[in-house]
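Researcher: We're teaching a course module on how sequence relates to structure. For the next exercise, students receive a sequence and then see the predicted structure as tokens, so they can try to spot secondary structure elements on their own. Here is the exercise chain.
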Amino acid sequence: MDAETKQQVVELIREKGYERRPEPFRLTSGEMSHDYVDGKRAIADGADLSLVAKAMLDLCEANGVEFDAAGGLTLGADPLAHAIAIVGGKKWFTVRKEAKGHGTKSRVEGARLGKGDRVLLVEDVVTTGGSIVQAVEPIVETGAEIVFATAIMDRGKSGSDRLGEHGIKFLPICTYEDLGIDPVGSS
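Model: And here is the predicted structure for the students to work with:
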């Protein structure tokens, strides 16, 4: 990914997905912050979603990552997986937080993943890595191989460590440093 594309994504987050709040609040991760980053709002426009999908594809190409399907835990991964499938000619999937009580009872929906499938794990915003890690086990259970993970933004320093514990390389498009905010957990 070139520097210009990265800067466009940073500006997109800053303009459409970032909010500085006067009082600290609790994030989904349990951490406290004044800075709120809403990746889903930032990519709600089709052109913005396309820009981020292209940036993720470029990031993969620049790192020699080849994959067959993109996806991750619903809801943060869903629009990204769909856009990557369309822009990059790949398959998409989503991982449910819990298995359905009927039908296939599968947690992985969309593309049928199995042995030999190479997967790109995606997320909108990673704070501690908890949500993105929740998708790992159901994907691995299909027999597919997670070859890389990415996000629009990494809010802290622990996401890559948590994914590294699973043998997964993680590289976001941008980080808290690009927005000039404190990493989550640094108080």
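Model: If you want an answer key for the exercise: The chain has eight helices and eight strands. The mean pLDDT is 94.
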